[in-house]
Design a protein that fits this description.
2 strands; mainly alpha; disordered N terminus; 4 helices; about 90 residues; single chain
C-alpha cells in the first residue's frame, strides 16, 4: 500500500462525504471552536457526526445552518437564533 493511500484512509473522508472538524469549521467561518462546541451542547448548531470521540461536520449541513442564519436586519428573529453572548 502506498503512503498516499495510507494517508487517505486516515482522513475523515468517505465516498459520499468529506467531513470537516470543529477547528476547520471555526477557521472557515472566522469563529472560535468553543462557539461550535457550545452550539452542539445546546442543540442549536448544525447537524454533526460523532465517530468515537471525534466530531465531524458534513459541508451540506454547515451550508444549511449558515443559510438559516441569514438576516435582512438586526431586528429579524428566527427559531434557530444563535446565542452570541454564550460565545464570550
Amino acid at each position: 500500500m502506498s503512503s498516499k493511500t495510507q494517508r487517505e484512509d486516515k482522513s475523515p473522508q468517505t465516498e459520499d462525504c468529506f467531513c470537516l472538524t470543529t477547528k476547520q469549521i471555526a477557521v472557515q467561518t472566522q469563529t472560535s471552536t468553543s462557539y461550535w462546541e457550545k452550539q452542539r451542547g445546546k442543540g442549536g448548531g448544525p447537524k454533526y457526526i460523532k465517530v468515537g470521540r471525534s466530531v465531524r461536520y458534513r459541508p451540506d449541513d454547515i451550508r444549511d445552518f449558515m443559510n438559516s442564519q441569514v438576516r435582512a436586519s438586526t431586528s429579524s428573529l428566527s427559531s434557530s437564533k444563535i446565542d452570541l453572548e454564550g460565545a464570550k
